[in-house]
């Protein structure tokens, strides 16, 4: 990092070369020479501008000769690039005027990230945003925090009410004069100052999100509700609706999803200029109650807070949490990067190593679904990869008298088990190659046809190789992690066939890291922190949802993002008109990768079985039932503390279930009587589904 003396020396050197705003290449050289970040430069400009104003108004004296360098810099920028709608200032204009105009109007220009030659930038410089209007709910107004990226001073999104007030993050309220959808789109792009910076240097900035309340939707000419026989989230405005016609007439476009609860309105990018706005309509069920509990009924300012925290920690929503989970993968692993053409010297888009690329890839026939063209065309019937989450109940006849006399059944739930499985997970990045009688290698991701029926497992535990826990009866297709676990148990494996991938990588690593941090940070906001002992952790988890309903909704959305994102990797065809063998829209995505989904679920199920086996070794206890990431144990007490293994020092034993707030650790799911659990088992029901007090959803990563 360069010192301040070197920084200002670089500023003076550039000013001597060019008294006005340096061209982009020189601005990049300035930042590189100074060794500073965008945020530091923006903060320095803001602080110096105020100092200039104070000095010119006679309230203070310059505190450093460095101030003069920045004063001349601001003066030159403001003279050459005047504020929106103003005439260019003369080179001899007073320093105070230059300083006042410069940073406010040109924050985008002065902090633009360096771009490789020929690589499109994220977007054009925006005019100064409309100042925040007085809130109709004054108590909710707060002073906006300094924006991390001055191109987007008002954050990633706003919630618009029927009175024209757009509620943003940090309590800011903007005055939106739009009376129709077209005006709203143009105001959002030109004046709102909304948006979010890209999550990866080779990626794209997040488009601004406008959330419409029911009153705002009606004001803009939209119906308050979409009605029909389908689920409301699947409904769309007809093409002859006045609003759709208005959008098309103004030369804006809608995506293939049409004008539904999540509508994207855009124009084709021209050079560096990206023009796209995301709309979400609350009264059209844009925010699913299961993923965003209670958010649709919140006040606009609270909706903005919930979505704003999610956007900051995860990604600006672009649809359901499942869609957002998939978009996050692409945002953190962009398919292309700028590469220099050796023949022409031009910078062109090239493949970004570690990504899934830009073209869709067909799976191996056993990895696909029965209706997929590669299956229909190949004539394959049966013999598909069946890597799914557990849904298993122990045979009642295997319960011992000692177990039946225990008073309680206690359910443990693993925190975001799929997210924990995604950590350091090596998956295939290239197309599958077919091999006959390959030698098994646990380091090669792929699908293996192998007979694991000879592997002996205690009947009081589920088989690690099947979702229903039954023992395999012959050769079947398994993902690498499943076959490797058979080797771990000491058995020889001899695959008959394999669909293996030569190019591999930990594609989901950045996705895991970002979502893990979001999950842990949000739990901490609810009072559940890493430093709590197990007893305090259980007490904090008992009431954490009541601490802050808004943050509890963010937590639920993060968990739904994990499950939905994994499920989207194998999205099935939708709609009654679909016919087997046809390609459906999801297959056009490079992220339609059922093999990656299988790898995550396989690893999660194997992780669960390993803990079940270790628990049996350490405590002699065997589970009553497992449903995905929830397991039910007989217990002598009404707490997990009554049966989880601890060392003499009081620390949890490694390898077994452990309580804690991070992904992969456990929390209490529910407590019932042992009599209740046995009664359910006798009637063929899974206690893990009901131990929380309701009907749990079987989690298959869908």
Net shape: globular
The percent range for helix content is 25-40%
Amino-to-carboxy terminus distance? 46 Å
Radius of gyration: 29 Å
Low-confidence stretches: 1-5, 11-31, 33-44, 51-70, 77-147
Number of extended strands: 20
User: Helix/strand-derived class?
Assistant: alpha+beta
For the residues shown, what is the average pLDDT?
Answer: 83
What fraction of residues sit in β-strands? 5-15%
Number of DSSP helical runs: 20
User: How is the main sheet built?
Assistant: 7 strands, mixed
Strand order of the largest sheet: 3-2-1-4-7-6-5
Describe this structure in words.
It contains 20 helices and 20 strands. Residues 1-5, 11-31, 33-44, 51-70 and 77-147 have low confidence and may be disordered. The strands form five sheets. A seven-stranded mixed beta sheet has the order 3-2-1-4-7-6-5. Strands 10-18-19-11-20 form a five-stranded antiparallel beta sheet. Helix 14 (480-488) runs parallel beside helix 18. It is 34% helix and 13% strand. With 702 residues, the chain is an alpha+beta fold. The chain has helices spanning 4-17, 24-34, 38-56, 66-80, 95-110, 181-190, 214-219, 242-249, 300-313, 321-332, 373-378, 401-405, 417-422, 480-488, 509-525, 534-547, 549-568, 594-619, 674-682, 687-690, and strands spanning 157-160, 165-167, 173-175, 209-212, 253-254, 262-270, 273-281, 336-340, 347-351, 391-393, 408-414, 427-428, 433-436, 446-451, 475-479, 497-500, 504-505, 625-627, 630-635, 666-673. A hairpin with a 4-residue loop joins strand 1 and strand 2 (165-167).
